[in-house]
Amino acid sequence: MEFKDKKVLVLGLSKSGISAAKHLAKIGAKVYLTESRTQNFDDIQKIANLKQYGIQVEMGGHSSDFVEGAFIAVTSPGIPPHSEIMQILNDKNIPVISEIELAYLTCKTPFIAITGTNGKTTTTALTDFIFKTKYKTEPCGNFGKPPCDLTEENLDYFICECSSFQLEYSPTFKPKVSVWTNFTPDHIDWHNGLDNYFKAKAKIFKGNQAPEYSVLNAKDAKLKEFGQTLTGKIFWFGEDYSENCCFTRGDSIYFRQDGKEEKIIELKDCPMIGEHNYQNIECSIVSAKLSGIENNSIKRAIMEFRVPEHRLEKVTKIDNTVYYNDSKATNPEASLVAIRSFKPEQNVVLIAGGRDKNTDLTEFCEAVNKHIKTVILIGEATQRFEENLLKNGFRNIIKESTMQRAIDKASELKPDVVLLSPACASFDMFKGYEERGKVFKEYVISKL
Question: Which residue, among 336, 12, 326, has the nearest Cα to 186 in the 3D structure?
Fold first, then answer.
């Protein structure tokens, strides 16, 4: 697709919006960036920088002067399909694409695309870390830089975390390898239904967007079923499932291609704990093996890797208690995998709660009953979580008003583990899960 001398509308003064706008300006497009919110102090330098590229910027709404005559629009992930600006663009038959799609259309660097409800950030980071043993790569997309920031870097691969928001508007995006970590309900309001959420992620595995290789989770029933509908080359992870798979058997992880099996690494050499992290390692191994990386390089990289912040991150050990920060667990499904990482015989205190997403808590309560000794609840979701836990027979519940008080109470109990895995969004008490995790870590470390 040719953008030179075309009027292109960019939606949102976001990280990806700014990246798309600058990239478009560099390739000769006439760029108009429009942002619905009013300007604040932090925007002044951003806008001044964009104007140096000849980019027109408006704040506080989407004017007809900006919209009219646009050849195409590039959207930001936070703008839902049912928003007013999307309706306007639809009425005017102006196509809308994501910033990832823009990078794909204008750069020949192949993509390793990683999507899923949970685990995709850790998998993206680990995959990139392994790939760097042989190739020039960068993590990008929903984690790392926007890919449009990297189009001039002469990379061998983009290792791209792809959210459903981004894939919704990526109609021709065709990765070399597409990885799907798992599928559970999330972002249902944004996509106007669970089916639409699934379809947004599914598009990079089939039809004209089908990759050279699809990598799917064999432990996920929905993805196992979906895999039967695909016609391309499929590699599975999580189970010893086919002649092309990566799986854990006994105390080691194995890779099998066309029936030939290789041992890659022993679990004791993996720095990350829990079955979900072994699955993250497995799908990273598949992408690496399919891209020609040697077993020794893969093993060494896994051993040296450190988990991204806020994802079952070991903070410190005080006396005999280990503290873990899993603030990224913003839904019950994400918390499940952290909770199940600990043995039932361990004394684990769970700090949970925040802004409720009102998803089903049955599995969450079952896992708590099996793996957790005490739950400390904070935030807006306290009442519903308490009611569900009590209904499922779990009674060792403490309610606290702040993160700091929750940590104090957890420490007094002298457990083996204190786990922050909220199962909720953070916006009732914090700006985001990053701030929530930072507050947890800083207060824990202050106790040393």
Answer: 336
DSSP string for residues in 321-390 = EEEEE-TT--SHHHHHHHHTTS-TTS-EEEEE-SB------HHHHHHHHHH-SEEEE-STTHHHHHHHHH
To 10 degrees, the CA torsion angle through 375, 378, 383, 386?
0
Nearest to 181 by CA among 364, 341, 337, 16: 337
- The answer to whether the CB of 134 falls within 8 A of the CB of 292 is yes
Q: By C-alpha distance, which of 188, 184, 149, 191 is closest to 167?
A: 191
Domains of the chain and CATH, by start: 7-94 (3.40.50.720), 101-304 (3.40.1190.10), 313-445 (3.90.190.20)
Q: Are strands 213-217 and 96-98 parallel, antiparallel or unpaired?
A: unpaired
pLDDT at residue 276 in the model: 84
Triad 290, 296, 301: Cα angle to 5°: 85
Q: How far apart are CA 65 and CA 58, in angstroms?
A: 10
Residue 397 identity: I
DSSP 223-260: HHHHHTT--SEEEEESS--SSSEEEEETTEEEEEETTE
Instruction: Give the model's pLDDT for residue 187.
Output: 62
Distances (CA, A) of 141 to 96, 158, 185, 195, 279: 17, 9, 21, 23, 21
- For residue 188, the model assigns a pLDDT of 63
The pLDDT of residue 39 is: 95
- 158 and 138 in contact (C-beta within 8 Å)? yes
Q: Are strands 245-249 and 252-257 parallel, antiparallel or unpaired?
A: antiparallel
Q: How many helices (H) and strands (E) does the chain have?
A: 17, 20
Sequential DSSP letters for 3-15 = -TT-EEEEE-SSH
Q: Which residues of 158-191 are buried (b: 16+ CB within 10 A; e: fewer)?
A: bbbbbbbbbbbbbeebbbbbbbbbbbbebbeebb
Query: DSSP characters for 300-334?
Result: HHHHH--PPTTSSEEEEEETTEEEEE-TT--SHHH
**Could you tell me if 301 and 271 are in contact, meaning their C-beta atoms sit under 8 angstroms apart?**
no
Structure tokens at 295: 């077993």
Give me the residue label for tokens 């109470």: 409
> SS3 for 100?
helix
Stretches where the chain sits below pLDDT 50 are none
Measure the CA–CA gap between 92 and 238, rounded to whole angstroms: 46
* pLDDT recorded at residue 377: 98
d(C-alpha 141, C-alpha 116), whole Å: 13
Q: Tally Cβ neighbours within 10 Å of residue 277.
A: 22
